[in-house]
Automatic annotation (TrEMBL):
Native species: Paludibacterium purpuratum
Keyword tags: DNA-directed RNA polymerase, Membrane, Transcription, Transmembrane, Transmembrane helix
One GO CC term, this protein: DNA-directed RNA polymerase complex
Residue spans crossing the bilayer: 245-265
Name by which UniProt lists this protein: DNA-directed RNA polymerase specialized sigma24 family protein
Length: 303
């Protein structure tokens, strides 16, 4: 008989969702737990004064940064094996069916709905792994983290229109694959599909809570202590995390203004106008007393 998942606070539940989100990308539970640990350390070390808890959207920005780093390290580690596999192909290539192809959901008359079965959670997880990164992230922030559209757009550094479009495409893909698996979703709306998918993801999350709930609780207790005051550089990083899209547009505007000013200062016509003005001044009639002035002679010698 499986043990019940430990009781987690709302903050620890947010950390558990963060671990599940990391697991979608890195594919290893220990690596996902390490990503959450590094994110919590960064949150407590630099931004504890600005963040209430892990439910803050700023936590999602930090989590995305550490996920990119972990994924980059994984790709670097796989670079040499992938190169060798291309240079020395295996003798026989056998295409084994993937996890998504092998998953089957029992939809009998007296069976629960697809999103209430453990296979339903695994199915939604595998579908999310197939989605493009932007679509998966938009779906996760809107329907799993339940962030408002404006906050989700800030987390993803996109416009609200792009986030809504990506989440809609992800839901459409979910509906199409679930229909192929025999789930009765033909008449369901996109909002119903997203709600059922979020409920299905709660089942694998309960399994993670049993396996890593105590570890997550210890992580949150370790960072729950007085921390040093923030520095000016941390405040600058905080601004970029809070308003990523606006900060990028401001930096881009400053670069464009600097380039435009440089081009204006180096215009050939401007130098020619300055030279023409100097020639006119030198060729004009200068009074005799000015020519005989010692200061004028010294200035001319210096030129």
């Amino acid at each position: 008989m499986a043990s019940a998942p430990p009781l987690l606070s709302s903050t620890e539940s947010a950390g558990l969702r963060a671990m599940q989100q990391a697991l979608l990308i890195v594919g290893d539970e220990q690596t996902a737990l390490a990503v959450v640990r590094d994110t919590l350390r960064a949150m407590s070390k630099r931004y504890a004064y600005a963040m209430k808890d892990a439910r803050d959207p700023l936590f999602q920005r930090l989590l995305r940064q550490h996920l990119r780093r972990a994924r980059w390290r994984q790709r670097l580690g796989q670079l040499l094996p992938d190169l060798l596999s291309h240079l020395i192909p295996p003798q026989s290539e056998t295409l084994a069916p993937g996890t998504l192809e092998m998953l089957q959901i029992d939809l009998g008359e007296h069976r629960p709905a697809w999103h209430e079965q453990p296979q339903g959670g695994l199915l939604v997880t595998e579908i999310l792994r197939l989605l493009p990164t932007r679509q998966r992230d938009a779906f996760w922030q809107l329907h799993v983290e339940c962030l408002p559209l404006q906050q989700a757009a800030r987390v993803l550094a996109l416009t609200q229109r792009c986030v809504r479009r990506d989440a809609s495409r992800a839901t459409a893909m979910l509906k199409a694959i679930l229909a192929l698996k025999g789930c009765a979703v033909e008449m369901a709306t996109k909002s119903d599909i997203a709600l059922c998918a979020a409920k299905a993801l709660a089942l694998p999350r309960a399994t993670l809570a049993i396996a890593h709930g105590d570890a997550l609780r210890q992580l949150f207790q370790a960072v729950d202590r007085p921390l040093r005051r923030s520095r000016l550089t941390d405040r600058g990083r905080l601004l970029m995390l809070r308003h990523p899209l606006g900060t990028r547009l401001a930096i881009l505007g400053a670069l464009i203004a600097a380039v435009a000013a440089g081009l204006w200062l180096t215009q050939p016509g401007r130098n020619e106008d300055q030279a023409r003005t100097e020639i006119q001044l030198l060729s004009s009639d200068v009074p005799l007393d000015v020519l005989l002035d010692s200061r004028f002679v010294e200035a001319a010698d210096e030129d």
